[in-house]
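HOLO CASE FILE
Compound: zinc ion
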Amino acid sequence: MTYAHPAVAAPSAPALPTIPVKEIAPFLMFGGLLIVIAFYFIGVEQGAFSLVGGTYLHEFVHDGRHLLGFPCH
Ligand SMILES: [Zn+2]
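Model generated. Tokens follow.
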């Protein structure tokens, strides 16, 4: 059983702002694109899927690849 003092009003929940999906959709799409690009370069850019020649890019993201648990070698 809880006791509330009659002189103290219970705090009312603040009104939460609403964000229309139409307004944030472009930002979500752009952020998703950046995530897909980062996923490609960190996780897939190697061997037959390589878009950039040489091993420079692979070596650059190599530690991140192992940190995130992508299979590498
Ligand atoms: Zn490795």
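CASE NOTES: Residues 21-67 form one domain. The first helix runs from residue 21 to 44.
CLOSED: yes
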